[in-house]
Amino acid sequence: MNSKNITPYNEKGERHGYWERYYNNGNLHYKGNYVNGNEHGYWQCYYRNGQLRSKGNYLNGKQNGYWERYWDNGQLDSKIYYI
């Protein structure tokens, strides 16, 4: 695990607050917020090569609204709407 990772927890030991995770090569893997152990709010995930993999919102741990997914060359793969 990279020492740059930001990983806050609440008093129950659940993921809570802003998180960042990095690959061993130093590139960002993902960033987003947790609320009491569930993904919540805007998230971005990246490929190991640094290209954006996906972006969108979570609501209480479930994908919500529009999400975009990308190929590892940066081109848009799909747009999906989650309810």
What is this structure, in a nutshell?
With 83 residues, the protein is mainly beta.
Draw up the topology in text:
Blueprint: E1 17-22, E2 28-35, E3 38-39, E4 41-46, E5 52-59, E6 62-70, E7 76-82
Antiparallel strand pairs: 1-2, 2-3, 2-4, 4-5, 5-6, 6-7
Which features would summarize this protein structure in a list?
83 residues; single chain; mainly beta; flat
How many individual helices? Answer: 0
Radius of gyration, CA atoms, in whole angstroms: 13 Å
Note the beta-strand portion.
over 45%
Overall pLDDT confidence: 94
Give the SSE string.
EEEEEEE
Helix content: under 10%
Secondary-structure class: mainly beta
Query: How many domain units?
Result: 1
> Low-confidence parts, pLDDT < 50 over ≥5 residues?
none
Total number of strands: 7
- Backbone shape: flat
User: Which sheet architecture does the biggest sheet show?
Assistant: 7 strands, antiparallel
In angstroms, what separates the terminal alpha carbons? 34 Å
Can you walk through the features of this model?
The structure is a single chain. The protein is mostly beta strands and 83 residues long. It has one domain (17-82). The protein has strands at residues 17-22, 28-35, 38-39, 41-46, 52-59, 62-70, 76-82.
